[in-house]
Amino acid sequence: MSTHIGAKPGEIAERVLMPGDPLRAKWIAETYLEDAKCYSTVRGMLGFTGRWFGTEVSIQGSGMGMPSASIYAHELINDYGVKALIRVGSCGALSEDLQLRDVIAASGSSTDSNMNRMRFDGLIDYAPVADFGLLRTSVEVAERRGIAMRVGPILAADAFYTDRPDLYDTLADYGVLAVEMESAALYTIAARFKARALTLLTVSDHIKRGEQTTAQEREQTFSQMVEVALDTIIA
Asked: Which residue numbers delimit the Nucleoside phosphorylase domain (predicted)?
């Protein structure tokens, strides 16, 4: 049992989906997994293990922001032997040609966080990227399912509310598709501890156009992303 996850040894699968919202973790487990069982309710950050087409998969909530996601990724890998992690989350679109509910696979993750600068003593701007095998598989799965998934870089931001929205325009000019709050930490920790990681996102709002989905839609209606993630994690 780790500090923040209440699972016993063997209760967490080597393959894990990581939504930020614990209620989304519950919805995924109950909707998709066979014989899903809850292994942790610590701090309300729910975790479940079940089977997807006969393969054990766990769903673990990770909270909001890189500090929270870092804790869960670190403990899943180091305390429970997790080998592959796919974040399934929501994002705000920066690219003009993205629409609400579009699915994105994040090839890399820029960040305004100081976490990696401190990790490298301020000498290196480390570039966190997805595991290529998982990324390639997700593209193949999306094509097979007829889902028009976009692949490209995103921003993992420390702050949800910002006084510098003009920076989003600059990032869009450089091809950054969307903004969320966890992926850079997940990619960095997975690289450090020799695990594989990928971030799949559904566009929940469009920052430039002011469009947005409801809280219930963000919790429960991102089925295309989840199905791509489940098929990818067991491949």
From this structure: 15-229
205 carries an active-site annotation: yes
Domain count, the chain: 1
- Structure tokens that stand for 74 in this block: 């670190």
With respect to residue 102, please indicate whether it lies within any of the assigned structural domains.
yes
Domain boundaries, position 90: 15-234
The 3-class secondary structure across 45-108, one letter per residue, is CCEEEEEECCEEEEEECCCCCHHHHHHHHHHHHHHHCCCEEEEEEEEEECCCCCCCCCEEEEEE
Is residue 67 a part of any domain in this protein?
yes
Among 79, 112, 158, 205, the one annotated catalytic? 205
Contacts of residue 136, Cβ cutoff 8 Å, sequence gap at least 6: none
* Separation CA 134–CA 11 (nearest Å): 23
Verdict on whether the full-model pTM lies above 0.70: yes
Q: Which two tokens stand for residue 178?
A: 């969307």
Half-sphere exposure of 97 (CA within 13 A, CB side): 6
Kindly compute the dihedral angle of the four CA atoms of residues 77, 12, 45, 84, in this order, to the nearest 10 degrees.
40
pLDDT digits (tens, 9 = 90+) for 186-215: 999 999 999 999 999 999 999 988 888 887
Question: CATH number, domain at 59?
Answer: 3.40.50.1580
